[in-house]
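Thread: Newbie trying to understand structure tokens

Hi all, I'm a second-year student working on a class project, and my supervisor (Dr. K.) asked me to get a predicted structure for one chain before our next meeting. I've only ever worked with sequences, so writing a 3D structure as a token string is new to me. If someone could post the tokens and maybe explain what I'm looking at, I'd be very grateful. Here's the chain:
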Amino acid sequence: RERRAASVGHVGAAATAAVASVATLGGGAGCIAVDAAGAVAMPFNTATMARGIARGDGVLLVAVDAEPQRV
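---
Reply by user tm_fold:
Sure, no problem. This is what the structure looks like when written as tokens:
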């Protein structure tokens, strides 16, 4: 089962591919990736994955299992 959060553009595709490659080996994985333009991807294939980001506009986003929530 694959779970994904905020996968955007090329960074999302790359991060999702990395997580998928671990899954083909039977492993669980998650990745927080940021590209040069600030696009963020946080895909994971486990039941939960603790993650968070601080955007340039000062907004903080955190999550464990669902989509990131603003704090």
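A couple of things are worth pointing out once you decode it. Residues 23 and 53 are 24 Å apart (CA to CA). The helical segments are 9-23. Feel free to ask follow-ups in this thread.
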